[in-house]
Amino acid sequence: MVEKSTELIHGQVVRKDPARLRLTPNLQDFEGLRKTFKWSDADKMVEWFPGGKINAAYNCIDRHAKGKRKDKIALIYDDGEGNAQTFTFGQLQVLTNKFANVMKKFNIKRQDRVFFFLSRSPELYAGFVGAIKYGAIASPMFPAFGPDAIRDRLLDSGAVCLVTDSALKKRVYEVKSQLPELKHIIIVGKDVAENEISWEKEMADASDEFDATPMDPEEFSYMLYTSGTTGKPKGVVHAHKDIVQMHLSTYWVLDVHEEDVYWCTADLGWVTGVVYGCLGPWSNGVTQVGLGGRFDPERWYKTIQTHKITIWYTAPTAVRMLMAKGDDLPMKYDLSSLRALYSVGEPLNPEGVKWAMDVFDVKPFHDTWWQTETGSILITNFPEMDIKPGSMGKPLPGVEAAIVDEAGNILEQGEEGSLVLRPGWPSMMRQIWKNPAKYNEYFRNGWYYTGDTAQIDKDGYFWYVGRADDVIKTAGERVGPFEVESALIEHPAVAEAGVIGKPDELRGNIIKAFIVLSPGFSESPQLKEDIQKFVKTRLAGHAYPREVEIVKTLPKTRSGKIMRRMLRAKELGLPIGDTSTLED
Ligand code: WTA
Q1: Ligand 1 centroid to residue 473 C-alpha, Å
Q2: Pair 149, 49 in one domain
Q3: CATH code for position 513
Q4: Which of 52, 209, 347, 561 has the greatest number of C-beta atoms within 10 Å?
Q5: How many whole angstroms separate alpha carbon 431 and alpha carbon 204?
Q6: Which of 261-270, 407-416, 573-582 has the highest mean pLDDT?
Q7: Ligand 1, residues 246, 249, 313, 478: which to mutate, most atoms within 8 A of Cβ?
Q8: Which of 400, 435, 458 finishes a domain?
Q9: Are 493 and 394 contained in the same domain?
Q10: Residue range of the domain that includes 526
Q11: Segments of 372-441 assigned E as strands
C-alpha cells in the first residue's frame, strides 16, 4: 500500500509529493500566487458579452455547447434505483433554452424570482440553469421543506413562479392562499390541475433557440435562504459575476481536469449543490454526476464504482455515517477511480481524514470552508498542499482572512477569535433580500464577520473553533434556533420554547428544544413525539428537535429574550457566565 501511496501521514501532517499525484494539480505555486494574484486575472477564465455583460448560465452550458464539448457528457443523472440518464452539453443547451422560452411565454420579467421545489432530477438542473440564462433570479428549495418553510421563502422573495412536481405540490397548496404574488405553478409530472402549467407540454412546445440574456455582472443570478441567530431565514442574493470565482475555485481547489467524472453529493437546496454541484463544475466543462434518492452507504459506494467517479465532494456527517458502517463495506466495491476527496459544511474530524486514507487507497479528505454568503470556497486544503488533519487549510490567493478580537484588532497566531474576511472577492453576496440592515450587520471595522470563531497556527493553517452566535449546524445543515422556536410555539401545547445545538458524534450537533407547556397539557412521550412531528412536517425534515425537554421556565432577559446561552451552559455543564441581564 505504502509503495504506491501519493500521500503519507508523518506525525500529524499528510505530506503531498506532487510528483506522485495522478494528475498535475491546476494550482501550482500556491505561495507565489498569494503574492501576485489579482481577481482581474480570473475574469479571463469566463466568457463575456460585448459591453462588459455576462451570463453565468451561458458560461456553464452554451459556451461548451458551441465548441468542442458539444457532445461531451455534462450530466449523468442516476435516480439511485439503478437507472442512469446522460445529457451532453448540447442537450442541456436545448433544455435550458426551452425553459428560458417557457419563462418568456409566461411573461416572467428580468430579475423576477423563480423558485424550484423539486427533488434532484434532470428537470431541476435544466430549470434552474434555464432561469438564470433567462435573467430571472433562480432559487432551489430543499425537498424536505414543509409548508411553513416554503411560505416564508416565497412570501419574502415575492416569487412569481414556482416549479414543483405532482408529489410535492400538496405542501405548497397548504400555504398558497398566503402567497398573493405567486402567479405561475409549473408541474413536473402527470398530475397537472387546470390552473397549473404542465412542464412536459410547455417544454415540448417551446423553441430550442434562445440567446442567453446579457446581464450586468452585478445583476442577480440566484438566491438562497439561510439561517442567522435572529429572525426568519434571510435571502442571500448572488450576482452573475460570481461565476468568475465559482469557476476559478472549482479549477484550483476541486482541481477538475477534462477527463474527470465529478460528484458533489449536496442537494441544490444548499449552496454547495448550487455552486459545486451545478454551476462551478459546468463552467469548467466537466462531467458531473447527480444522484437521486436518499443517503445510503451502499448506494453511494456503488455510485462511485458504476460511474468511475474521480472527484468526490461531500460533507463530514456523511463521512462519519460511512465510517460508522465499517470498512468491510467499501472493500466490496472497486473505488480505485477516485483521485481526490473533499468535504464541507462542518468541522471534519482528523479521524475522517485518516479513515479515508485507509479505505480509499491513501487518499485523504480535503476540508474546505465557506458560507452561503461567501458564494464559494475561501479557505481550503489544496491538492498540492500538505494537509494537517482537522484544519480548514489556508485562504485562496486573492482572499485575506484573519482572526480578530471584539475591536477588530488582528490576533496573534494560536489565539482564538472571530474569523473575518476583507471584503472584495467576486462571489460575495450582493445583498440580503429586502433587508439592508441585516446585510450591514455583517460588516464592522472594515471586515466581513463570518460568525465563526477560529485560530491560525504558526504555518498559517486555519483551525475552526465554533460559531460565535446561536446558529446550529446539524448534519451540515444550517438551522436558526428562532425558526425552530417559531414553529414550536405554533403547536397548541407549547407556550414557550428555547432551542440550542447539542454536540452529537454523528451529526456534529442535534437540535434540542426546551419547552414550557401551555396550561392544561401534561408531559408524555406521545406529546413530545407529536411536537417533534409537528415541526418536522411544518418546517423541514432536518430542522426538528431530536431531543425535547419539558421545563417549568426558560431563562430570559429582563426584556423577555430567551437566553439560549444559559440553556446551552446548563445542558453541557459549562460555566453559566454573566447573568446580570437575567429576568430574576
Ligand atoms: C460551517 C456551507 C467547519 C461554518 C457551504 C460556516 C464549516 C457555516 C466548514 C456556513 C468547515 C462550513 N469547517 N465549519 N470546513 N464549512 N462550515 O452557509 O460555521 O450552510 O459559517 O454554507 O458552516 O454554512 P452554510
Answers
A1: 8
A2: yes
A3: 3.30.300.30
A4: 347
A5: 36
A6: 261-270
A7: 478
A8: 400
A9: no
A10: 471-572
A11: 379-380, 394-395, 401-404, 417-421, 431-432
In 149-249, at which residue ranges do the beta strands (DSSP E only) sit?
Answer: 161-165, 184-188, 197-198, 220-226, 234-239
Distance 398 CA to ligand 1 centre (A): 20
Contact (Cβ atoms closer than 8 angstroms) between residue 264 and residue 300: no
Rounded Cα gap, residues 549 and 74, in angstroms:
49
Q: How far apart are CA 454 and CA 469, in angstroms?
A: 13
Ligand 1 neighbourhood includes 451 CB (under 6 angstroms):
yes
What Cα–Cα distance (Å) separates residue 24 from each residue in 21, 29, 384, 474? 7, 12, 9, 36
Q: Is the C-beta atom of 347 inside 6 A of ligand 1? A: yes
Looking only at the bridges linking them, the beta strands covering 311-314 and 287-291 are unpaired
Q: Which of 400, 428, 457 is the last residue of a domain?
A: 400
pTM for the model stands at: 0.94
- Look up the CATH number of the domain holding residue 234: 3.40.50.12780
Note the pLDDT tens digit of each residue in 139-173.
Answer: 999 999 999 999 999 999 999 999 999 999 999 99
Whether ligand 1 lies within 6 angstroms of the CB of 473 is answered as yes
Domain shared by 341 and 477, yes or no = no
Contact indicator for 351, 324 with CB cutoff of 8 Å: no
Instruction: State whether 483 and 373 are in the same domain.
Output: no
421 Cβ below 6 A of ligand 1: no
Calpha distance 545→536 (Å, rounded): 8
pLDDT tens, residue by residue, 394-449: 999 999 999 999 899 999 999 999 999 999 999 999 999 999 999 999 999 999 99
| Inter-residue contact 367 to 279 (CB < 8 Å) | no
| Grid coordinates belonging to 344 | 464541507
Q: In this structure, is residue 16 part of a structural domain?
A: no
* 490/377 same-domain check: no
